[in-house]
Amino acid sequence: MPLHNLQIETIHLDNIHGATVILDIDGTITADGQVECSSGVLATLRDLAARNNVYLGSNYRNGARNRAIARRIGCFCIETPHLKPNSKVFEAIPACHRTQPIVVIGDKYLVDGLFARRIGALFIKVGRITSTDDRRFVKVAYFLDDLVSTIAGWLDRPR
What we know:
This protein has helices spanning 39-51, 63-73, 95-98, 109-119, 136-156; strands at 20-24, 53-57, 76-77, 102-106, 122-125. 35% of the residues are buried. By secondary structure, it is α/β, with parallel strands linked by helices. It has a single domain (3-156), classed as HAD superfamily/HAD-like (Rossmann fold). It has a 5-stranded parallel beta sheet with strand order 3-2-1-4-5, with helices on both faces.
């Protein structure tokens, strides 16, 4: 089964260690704009943070929420006026952590995947966490992202 169909708590991330991991929040570890993560997601992320420098990043402009989630996990929170996929987001991470192998984990190819490409990072696309409360704009963005991701997958297939 392709990785992008699996939600983050079902992926074995044990082989990621000594890296700087940039982890998307909305759609990756919780539904868009939400605060709570499942116990399985929290356990997975705490384990990941014990072996790596994990930074939460979100284009959702609620710094207090993002910091609260980071505290709950035991990781760092990226604080910058820039939005992914702008590579300037990466500059908000301390230089000493930017020299380690970089992994970006997210649910959106057009945001997280493009961001990873721009900073030269490995991208792990995971299954999206959604909610019936997701805003219409978010649902449309998810649809477009899935469409582009599918087309890109077809284009990347070996011939």
